[in-house]
Amino acid sequence: TAASPWARGEDEGSLSFQLSAEAAPVDIAEGVWEPETYGSLYIEYGLGHRFTLGGDFGAGETAQQAVTFLRYPLTPPDATWQFAVDGGIGMRVVEDESAQALVRLGASVGRGFGAGGGAWPMPMQHEGGWITLQALAYYNIDLEEPFWQLEGTAGLRLSNRLAAVFSLKVEEWPDSDLLMSAAPSLVFDLTDRTSIRGGAQAQLLGQSSVGLTLSIWHEF
Fold this sequence. Notes:
Elements: E1 13-23, H1 25-29, E2 36-48, E3 51-60, E4 63-73, E5 81-94, E6 100-113, E7 129-140, E8 145-157, E9 162-172, E10 179-189, E11 194-205, E12 210-219
Antiparallel strand pairs: 1-2, 1-12, 2-3, 3-4, 4-5, 5-6, 6-7, 7-8, 8-9, 9-10, 10-11, 11-12
Protein backbone atom coordinates (compact mmCIF):
# COMPACT_ATOMS: atom_id res chain seq x y z
CA THR A 1 0.00 0.00 0.00
CA ALA A 2 1.42 3.29 -1.07
CA ALA A 3 1.53 6.13 1.43
CA SER A 4 0.07 9.58 0.81
CA PRO A 5 1.69 12.94 1.62
CA TRP A 6 -1.20 14.05 3.86
CA ALA A 7 -0.29 14.18 7.55
CA ARG A 8 -2.19 12.14 10.12
CA GLY A 9 -3.76 14.05 12.99
CA GLU A 10 -2.37 13.49 16.46
CA ASP A 11 -3.43 10.10 17.85
CA GLU A 12 -5.16 9.25 14.56
CA GLY A 13 -4.08 6.38 12.36
CA SER A 14 -4.88 3.67 9.88
CA LEU A 15 -4.25 -0.03 9.46
CA SER A 16 -4.28 -1.92 6.17
CA PHE A 17 -3.79 -5.60 5.37
CA GLN A 18 -3.45 -6.87 1.79
CA LEU A 19 -3.14 -10.32 0.28
CA SER A 20 -2.17 -10.88 -3.35
CA ALA A 21 -1.83 -13.99 -5.53
CA GLU A 22 -0.06 -14.05 -8.90
CA ALA A 23 0.54 -16.72 -11.52
CA ALA A 24 1.90 -16.93 -15.08
CA PRO A 25 -0.76 -16.44 -17.78
CA VAL A 26 0.33 -19.63 -19.57
CA ASP A 27 -0.29 -21.66 -16.42
CA ILE A 28 -3.74 -20.13 -15.96
CA ALA A 29 -4.59 -20.86 -19.62
CA GLU A 30 -3.65 -24.51 -19.04
CA GLY A 31 -5.83 -24.70 -15.95
CA VAL A 32 -2.93 -24.73 -13.49
CA TRP A 33 -3.49 -22.42 -10.51
CA GLU A 34 -0.43 -22.43 -8.27
CA PRO A 35 -0.04 -18.74 -7.49
CA GLU A 36 2.75 -17.02 -5.63
CA THR A 37 1.19 -15.26 -2.65
CA TYR A 38 2.29 -12.14 -0.79
CA GLY A 39 0.84 -10.58 2.34
CA SER A 40 1.49 -7.05 3.58
CA LEU A 41 0.59 -4.95 6.60
CA TYR A 42 0.73 -1.15 6.51
CA ILE A 43 0.29 1.11 9.56
CA GLU A 44 0.25 4.91 10.03
CA TYR A 45 -0.10 6.84 13.30
CA GLY A 46 -0.09 10.59 13.90
CA LEU A 47 2.41 11.73 16.53
CA GLY A 48 1.47 15.40 16.56
CA HIS A 49 3.39 18.40 15.22
CA ARG A 50 2.49 16.99 11.76
CA PHE A 51 4.76 13.95 12.13
CA THR A 52 3.43 10.55 11.06
CA LEU A 53 4.97 7.26 12.19
CA GLY A 54 4.57 4.36 9.79
CA GLY A 55 5.31 0.68 9.40
CA ASP A 56 5.42 -1.35 6.17
CA PHE A 57 5.69 -5.13 6.56
CA GLY A 58 5.51 -7.77 3.84
CA ALA A 59 6.10 -11.50 3.46
CA GLY A 60 6.10 -13.74 0.41
CA GLU A 61 7.41 -17.16 -0.54
CA THR A 62 10.93 -15.91 -1.32
CA ALA A 63 11.38 -12.68 0.64
CA GLN A 64 10.26 -10.82 3.77
CA GLN A 65 10.73 -7.14 4.53
CA ALA A 66 9.94 -4.86 7.48
CA VAL A 67 10.47 -1.09 7.56
CA THR A 68 9.50 1.63 10.04
CA PHE A 69 9.61 5.28 8.95
CA LEU A 70 8.82 8.84 9.97
CA ARG A 71 7.08 11.19 7.50
CA TYR A 72 6.84 14.98 7.59
CA PRO A 73 4.88 17.24 5.17
CA LEU A 74 6.66 20.19 3.58
CA THR A 75 3.46 22.08 2.72
CA PRO A 76 0.74 23.61 4.94
CA PRO A 77 -2.42 21.52 5.49
CA ASP A 78 -4.56 23.76 3.26
CA ALA A 79 -2.17 23.69 0.26
CA THR A 80 -3.65 22.40 -3.02
CA TRP A 81 -0.61 20.23 -3.65
CA GLN A 82 0.82 18.30 -0.70
CA PHE A 83 4.52 17.37 -0.52
CA ALA A 84 6.14 15.18 2.14
CA VAL A 85 9.44 13.43 2.84
CA ASP A 86 10.19 10.43 4.99
CA GLY A 87 13.07 8.34 6.26
CA GLY A 88 13.28 4.98 7.95
CA ILE A 89 15.16 1.80 8.76
CA GLY A 90 14.32 -1.88 8.44
CA MET A 91 15.49 -5.29 7.38
CA ARG A 92 15.04 -7.73 4.50
CA VAL A 93 15.38 -11.51 4.33
CA VAL A 94 15.68 -13.30 0.97
CA GLU A 95 15.07 -17.07 0.99
CA ASP A 96 17.32 -18.69 3.62
CA GLU A 97 19.87 -15.88 3.87
CA SER A 98 20.45 -13.93 7.08
CA ALA A 99 18.60 -10.66 7.71
CA GLN A 100 20.00 -7.62 5.91
CA ALA A 101 19.73 -4.05 7.23
CA LEU A 102 17.98 -1.38 5.15
CA VAL A 103 17.87 2.41 5.08
CA ARG A 104 14.90 4.06 3.39
CA LEU A 105 14.42 7.57 2.00
CA GLY A 106 11.17 8.66 0.40
CA ALA A 107 9.21 11.56 -1.05
CA SER A 108 5.56 11.86 -2.01
CA VAL A 109 3.27 14.38 -3.65
CA GLY A 110 -0.52 14.41 -3.91
CA ARG A 111 -3.57 16.44 -4.74
CA GLY A 112 -7.25 15.99 -4.02
CA PHE A 113 -10.12 17.40 -6.05
CA GLY A 114 -13.83 17.76 -5.48
CA ALA A 115 -16.91 16.70 -7.39
CA GLY A 116 -16.64 17.66 -11.05
CA GLY A 117 -12.85 17.71 -10.85
CA GLY A 118 -12.39 21.47 -10.83
CA ALA A 119 -9.48 22.11 -13.19
CA TRP A 120 -9.63 18.44 -14.29
CA PRO A 121 -13.21 17.79 -15.43
CA MET A 122 -14.05 14.16 -16.17
CA PRO A 123 -16.46 12.84 -18.84
CA MET A 124 -18.51 11.16 -16.08
CA GLN A 125 -20.25 11.93 -12.80
CA HIS A 126 -18.10 11.57 -9.68
CA GLU A 127 -17.81 12.78 -6.11
CA GLY A 128 -14.16 13.87 -6.26
CA GLY A 129 -10.86 12.04 -6.12
CA TRP A 130 -7.11 12.23 -5.65
CA ILE A 131 -3.75 11.58 -7.27
CA THR A 132 -0.48 10.67 -5.55
CA LEU A 133 3.08 9.90 -6.59
CA GLN A 134 5.53 8.22 -4.22
CA ALA A 135 9.26 7.61 -4.75
CA LEU A 136 11.20 5.32 -2.42
CA ALA A 137 14.93 4.59 -2.38
CA TYR A 138 16.36 1.76 -0.28
CA TYR A 139 19.95 0.95 0.52
CA ASN A 140 20.95 -2.53 1.65
CA ILE A 141 23.72 -1.87 4.17
CA ASP A 142 24.99 -5.45 4.29
CA LEU A 143 25.16 -5.97 0.52
CA GLU A 144 25.94 -2.30 -0.23
CA GLU A 145 23.25 -2.31 -2.93
CA PRO A 146 20.49 0.22 -3.67
CA PHE A 147 17.01 -0.46 -5.03
CA TRP A 148 14.04 1.78 -5.66
CA GLN A 149 10.30 2.02 -6.28
CA LEU A 150 8.11 4.64 -7.98
CA GLU A 151 4.32 4.37 -7.70
CA GLY A 152 1.58 6.61 -9.04
CA THR A 153 -2.05 6.26 -7.93
CA ALA A 154 -5.26 7.90 -9.11
CA GLY A 155 -8.57 7.49 -7.31
CA LEU A 156 -12.06 8.57 -8.30
CA ARG A 157 -15.00 8.42 -5.90
CA LEU A 158 -17.95 7.16 -7.93
CA SER A 159 -20.47 7.48 -5.07
CA ASN A 160 -20.52 8.06 -1.34
CA ARG A 161 -19.33 4.50 -0.70
CA LEU A 162 -17.59 3.35 -3.90
CA ALA A 163 -14.30 4.47 -5.46
CA ALA A 164 -12.24 3.30 -8.44
CA VAL A 165 -8.45 3.26 -8.03
CA PHE A 166 -5.66 2.69 -10.55
CA SER A 167 -1.98 2.27 -9.59
CA LEU A 168 1.12 2.00 -11.76
CA LYS A 169 4.39 0.91 -10.16
CA VAL A 170 7.95 0.82 -11.52
CA GLU A 171 10.70 -0.77 -9.44
CA GLU A 172 14.20 -2.24 -9.67
CA TRP A 173 15.58 -4.77 -7.18
CA PRO A 174 19.14 -6.07 -6.82
CA ASP A 175 19.99 -8.71 -9.45
CA SER A 176 16.64 -8.15 -11.18
CA ASP A 177 15.37 -6.53 -14.35
CA LEU A 178 13.27 -3.38 -14.30
CA LEU A 179 9.69 -4.23 -13.33
CA MET A 180 6.47 -2.44 -14.16
CA SER A 181 3.02 -3.43 -12.92
CA ALA A 182 -0.53 -2.08 -13.11
CA ALA A 183 -3.29 -2.58 -10.55
CA PRO A 184 -6.91 -1.45 -11.13
CA SER A 185 -9.28 -1.93 -8.19
CA LEU A 186 -12.55 -0.94 -6.56
CA VAL A 187 -12.90 0.28 -2.96
CA PHE A 188 -16.15 -0.12 -1.05
CA ASP A 189 -16.72 1.63 2.27
CA LEU A 190 -18.20 -0.85 4.75
CA THR A 191 -18.46 1.88 7.42
CA ASP A 192 -17.18 5.43 7.87
CA ARG A 193 -13.84 3.99 9.02
CA THR A 194 -13.51 0.60 7.32
CA SER A 195 -13.13 -0.15 3.60
CA ILE A 196 -12.54 -3.25 1.53
CA ARG A 197 -10.59 -3.19 -1.73
CA GLY A 198 -10.49 -5.82 -4.44
CA GLY A 199 -8.80 -5.76 -7.80
CA ALA A 200 -6.41 -7.23 -10.30
CA GLN A 201 -2.74 -6.73 -11.02
CA ALA A 202 -0.55 -7.50 -14.02
CA GLN A 203 3.16 -7.31 -14.70
CA LEU A 204 3.76 -5.20 -17.80
CA LEU A 205 7.56 -5.31 -17.91
CA GLY A 206 10.27 -7.62 -16.57
CA GLN A 207 7.99 -10.51 -15.68
CA SER A 208 4.86 -12.18 -17.02
CA SER A 209 2.25 -12.71 -14.31
CA VAL A 210 -1.31 -11.71 -13.49
CA GLY A 211 -3.19 -11.94 -10.24
CA LEU A 212 -5.77 -10.72 -7.78
CA THR A 213 -5.55 -8.55 -4.67
CA LEU A 214 -7.81 -8.18 -1.66
CA SER A 215 -7.25 -5.73 1.17
CA ILE A 216 -9.05 -4.19 4.12
CA TRP A 217 -8.37 -0.68 5.44
CA HIS A 218 -9.41 0.64 8.84
CA GLU A 219 -8.96 4.15 10.26
CA PHE A 220 -8.88 4.76 14.01
